[in-house]
Amino acid sequence: xxxxxxxxxxxxxxxxxxxxxxxxxxxxxxxxxxxxxxxxxxxxxxxxxxxxxxxxxxxxxxxxxxxxxxxxxxxxxxxxxxxxxxxxxxxxxxxxxxxxxxxxxxxxxxxxxxxxxxxxxxxxx
Length: 125
What we know:
With 125 residues, this protein is mostly helical. The protein is built from five helices and no strands.
């Protein structure tokens, strides 16, 4: 959950301390297309409908926290330039609110935040 604390402070969740950094995760977000696909994936399976994949190690299986970490990584993919620091903060704030809503059991509010405050705004000025 350290990545969530970094999101709340407007920083990236990228970090070498993550075990998954040792082996590239197949769901990592490297391109804008990956980001769009991952947003749809999270909207379809969050909070706890992620399927166990036989090609992933047990610690690599998708969870709500990991799904949101990859969404956070996507913010940097979409807006890598320093000039967009405020936009990244706004998007990360939406991710934090959506994750909190999912964790508290409010799936409807979480899905709405994810769609309206994150997905609908990620590529709009």
